[in-house]
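Dear all,

This email documents one entry for the complex benchmark we are building for the journal club exercise. For each entry we list the sequence lines for every component of the assembly. Then comes the predicted three-dimensional structure of the complex as a token string, followed by one or two observations. Please use this as the template for your own entries, and keep the labels exactly as they appear.
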Amino acid sequence: SQTIHQWPATLVQPVGSPLSLECTVEGTSNPNLYWYRQAAGRGLQLLFYSVGIGQISSEVPQNLSASRPQDRQFILSSKKLLLSDSGFYLCAWSPKIGTFNQPQHFGDGTRLSIL
Amino acid sequence: QKEVEQNSGPLSVPEGAIASLNCTYSDRVSQSFFWYRQYSGKSPELIMSIYSNGDKEDGRFTAQLNKASQYVSLLIRDSQPSDSATYLCAAAKSGQNFVFGPGTRLSVLP
């Protein structure tokens, strides 16, 4: 079966510090990968998605970036965090099957607090 | 901006009752629809997918899709306190990314 791992679970960072969040998927190959952010009490905001190694699409311009160095690895980064970057960061994957969109499956998330 | 709308709630139902959660979407060509449950502080987990008009049942959950009215609903029969969570609706066009609604908070009262 497929599993998705995200770490760390919680992170407290000062303003202006760098960020690296990692996500890996097991039990599948060539998945679609996604990074979302959920602010407190808000909905899910898609940040980046990737359909393959090195292929990254950005949905929201900001000081974050994403990379996919390996098929099942997705990394979210920032060189300098802002207060507004606080939130719950979720990685998700979906298989490439058929013509209809397949469900996305989420990792446990990283709760990021910026001080 | 194409949107998915949900009543934010909270929707309160007594234990054992049917909870009805509603979702409307604005993009008429959306083809795929999903319901997720999100407990406080946790990540969303998939409850159901629905692609065709009509009802789809899975245990105590029934998803209903009406593409003509651009309306998706989730019924939870015999609601339990453990069903208390935020329920997220998502819609997608073929090959496009999901659009999530803001979620409806459900509270099942013992």
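Observations: The mean pLDDT of chain B is 94. Chain B touches chain A at residues 31-32, 34, 41-46, 49, 51, 88, 90, 92-98, 100-103 (CB under 8 Å).
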